């Protein structure tokens, strides 16, 4: 399965010139020679001054936040990226080794591209990765994963409320908060973006 953001392919990272008024949140721009992803793009009209766009962007490689004011008619380079599904195979130092599900080719992807959600990745899970030519520039884990509880205090009998929480460790070694009725050996669904428990998987 392939996920596309505009046309192109992994070895053909396309760019087009556009006006600032064409930019939307989520777009990837080439800004000052670097690739940035637009997190916020707001139209401003301050009093008698000319309208402009206030942009908040994040450098896709360093993660650094960039803020900039674009003129309404300012030319920008919007990059069109294609992303694909890869299978996570194993950890290799500061990188994760993944395999293209179509060609079986393997790649080393820096852990930092996945952000904090990398803590919940288990070997065999699918991840989404975007490349510029042969260099990975973005990586995304599944938004939800199912993991087994490898350690927790014994469940409180009869307590089925989700308000009272306790600490538990999942099979990737991460400690999360779960309801009191969760037992060691249970499988739970977790939001990888926040680390929050969602539900017990039956």
From TrEMBL:
InterPro entries associated with the record: Elong-fact-P_C (IPR015365), NA-bd_OB-fold (IPR012340), Rib_uL2_dom2 (IPR014722), Transl_elong_fac_P/YeiP (IPR020599), Transl_elong_KOW-like (IPR013185), Transl_elong_P/YeiP_cen (IPR001059), Transl_elong_P/YeiP_CS (IPR013852), Transl_elongation_fac_P (IPR011768)
Entry-linked Pfam families: EFP, EFP_N, Elong-fact-P_C
One GO term (biological process): peptide biosynthetic process
GO molecular function: translation elongation factor activity
UniProt keyword Protein biosynthesis, yes or no: yes
One term under GO cellular component: cytosol
Pathway(s) it belongs to: Protein biosynthesis; polypeptide chain elongation
Primary location: cytoplasm
Domain of life: Bacteria
Presence of the UniProt keyword Transcription regulation in the record: no
PROSITE patterns: EFP
Functional summary from the UniProt entry: Involved in peptide bond synthesis. Stimulates efficient translation and peptide-bond synthesis on native or reconstituted 70S ribosomes in vitro. Probably functions indirectly by altering the affinity of the ribosome for aminoacyl-tRNA, thus increasing their reactivity as acceptors for peptidyl transferase.
Listed HAMAP family: EF_P
Name of the protein in its database record: Elongation factor P
Gene, per the UniProt record: efp
């Amino acid at each position: 399965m392939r996920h596309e953001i505009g046309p192109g392919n992994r070895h053909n990272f396309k760019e087009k010139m556009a006006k600032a008024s064409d930019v939307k949140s989520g777009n990837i721009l080439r800004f000052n020679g670097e690739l940035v992803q637009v997190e916020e793009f707001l139209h401003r009209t301050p009093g008698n001054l000319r309208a402009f766009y206030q942009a908040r962007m994040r450098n896709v490689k360093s993660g650094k936040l960039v803020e900039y004011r674009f003129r309404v008619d300012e030319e920008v380079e919007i990059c069109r990226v294609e992303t694909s599904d890869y299978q996570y195979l194993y950890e290799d130092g500061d990188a994760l080794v993944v395999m293209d599900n179509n060609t079986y080719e393997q790649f080393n992807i820096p852990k930092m591209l996945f952000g904090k959600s990398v803590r919940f990745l288990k070997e065999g899970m699918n991840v989404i990765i975007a490349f510029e030519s042969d260099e990975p520039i973005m990586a995304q884990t599944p938004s939800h994963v199912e993991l087994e509880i490898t350690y927790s205090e014994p469940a409180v009998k009869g307590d089925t409320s989700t308000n009272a929480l306790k600490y538990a460790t999942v099979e990737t070694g991460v400690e999360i908060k779960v309801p009191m009725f969760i037992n060691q050996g249970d499988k739970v669904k977790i939001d990888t973006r926040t680390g929050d428990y969602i539900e017990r998987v039956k």
